[in-house]
Amino acid sequence: MPDTVDDVTSPGDEERRTDEAWRSIVEHYGDRPALEPEPDPLPEVALPPFDEDLDDEPDEPAYDSERFVPPLPPPLPRPTPRRAVAWAGVFGAPILLLVLLVFRVRTPALVDLVLLGWFVGGFVYLVATMPRAPREPWDDGSRV
Asked: Quick check: 2 and 8 in contact, CB under 8 A?
């Protein structure tokens, strides 16, 4: 049993404390807190005169002549004609079908079937010609 009445809490005590806290906030809203007095301003420092005869160009180059310059990257590899046709089918056929649908161009069913076959055939060709083993078996994919 509690010794004093202050230790006893009732279900409404928490709500009353919250209400009192909000009431205190509302009563003191807009009051400015007392701040410490501002320190004395810093004394003005005299700057040396500005020399307007400065050169626009630096005396020494902005870069180090012995700095490493990487070699040009090798050209991108050209795909074989079959692989190029397969990639064109994978990307080109859906884009062509989408353009035809957007502009509501009616095409014969044979054209639709050819585009669908080009897409599926290109995908199957690319998957079938994928290398089965990694290029370098000990390589984990990181490059330095």
From this structure: yes
